[in-house]
């Protein structure tokens, strides 16, 4: 069986294909990698301008290395090795909204922040 694609490797392939440095890109599409991505590695921290990150259709089991993505607004993780968002790290959505204040959607679902919930 082929070794999994790393985030670093997928970013390098994307840069080769598009000519755009991942650190400058606003949208990063790492979906359906062959072989699939299994881990969200530390290379994600280089995506300082990323507003939209798509990691759909891979084999990711758990989220990691997202805390440095301060500009992230949309995160797509559908069709991975999780049945639903409840299987992600405990309170991950709550923590994600704290560390990524601009996050608006997670897998196409609007994110409601704590302070917005309290207002209703």
Order of helices and strands: HEEEHEEH
Shape: globular
Taking the sheet with the most strands, its summary is: 5 strands, mixed
- Rg, Å, rounded: 14 Å
CATH-defined fold name = Leucine-rich repeat, LRR (right-handed beta-alpha superhelix)
How would you write the strand order of the largest sheet?
1-2-3-4-5
Structural class: alpha/beta
Using DSSP, what is the number of strands? 5
What portion of residues is helical? 10-25%
Return the domain count.
Answer: 1
Which residues form runs of ≥5 with pLDDT under 50? Answer: 86-90
Task: Please name the CATH architecture.
Answer: Alpha-Beta Horseshoe
Q: Counting H and I runs of at least 4 residues, what is the number of helices?
A: 3
Task: Please give the CATH class.
Answer: Alpha Beta
CATH evolutionary superfamily:
Ribonuclease Inhibitor
Describe the structure.
- The protein is of the alpha/beta class and 120 residues long.
- It has a single domain (7-110), classed as Alpha-Beta Horseshoe (Leucine-rich repeat, LRR (right-handed beta-alpha superhelix)), CATH 3.80.10.
- It contains three helices and five strands, in the order αβββαββα.
- The chain has a five-stranded mixed beta sheet, with no helix packed on it.
- It is globular, with a radius of gyration of 14 Å.
Structure at a glance:
22% of the residues lie in helices and 11% in strands. With 120 residues, it is α/β, with parallel strands linked by helices.
